[in-house]
Write a structure and sequence with these properties.
Elements (H helix, E strand, L loop, with lengths): L2 E6 L7 H11 L3 E7 L9 H15 L8 E7 L7 H17 L4 E6 L10 E7 L13 H14 L6 E6 L6
Parallel strand pairs: 1-6
Antiparallel strand pairs: 1-3, 2-4, 3-5, 4-5
Helix pairs in contact: 1-2, 3-4
Length: 171
């Protein structure tokens, strides 16, 4: 069963955007990636471009404190999905958040250290809304909204969601 894991806590250090994007991009398991609201320039590193885009919004609203990003993992469990299907789902989630004012960057991976067949997506979301300046928090209401969006966009797929503590612990 596919699930959404909203990683919480420990995303307060200044270099967190670059750290997560570099983690996504440097993985030997990377399949595809994309973004919304970030201008990826070929002569610059992807992580630096995403960082600059996120901080441009944070600076407008004077919000360079607190949890700086929301890290979301979209896991497909034992569901048999192709790379193309995973990228379609990731892009739909990216569009969902961006249409609500949140910049994001994502990458899909086809495995992990413990399971080479585990398909999943890592998404990093700017916690500051580019249109309103409001901060995003992983609550049951907004996690449930993402689940309802996915159930409508991909009928017949049962989604779950929840939070988990971050494994990026550097404050």
């Amino acid at each position: 069963m596919p699930n959404l894991i909203f990683k919480v806590k420990n995303y307060r250090n200044e270099d967190v955007v670059e750290t997560i994007v570099k983690y996504i991009m440097s993985s030997i398991y990377i399949e595809c990636y994309g973004s919304r609201g970030c201008f990826l320039v070929s002569e610059r590193g992807v992580a630096e471009c995403v960082r600059d885009a996120f901080y441009a919004v944070k600076n407008v609203y004077y919000k360079r404190d607190g949890q700086l990003v929301q890290h979301i993992i979209v896991g497909f469990g034992d569901v048999d999905v192709s790379e193309e299907q995973v990228c379609i789902v990731a892009d739909a989630i990216s569009a969902y958040f961006f249409s609500r004012g949140y910049q994001n960057f994502w990458g899909s991976h086809w495995g992990s250290e413990g399971n080479d067949s585990y398909r999943h997506v890592h998404m990093v979301l700017n916690t500051i809304n580019g249109m309103t300046g409001e901060r995003y928090f992983a609550t049951n209401d907004n996690m449930g909204e993402v689940k309802r969006f996915l159930m409508a966009a991909f009928p017949g797929v049962s989604w779950t969601y929840g939070t988990d503590e971050s494994f990026f612990h550097r404050e």
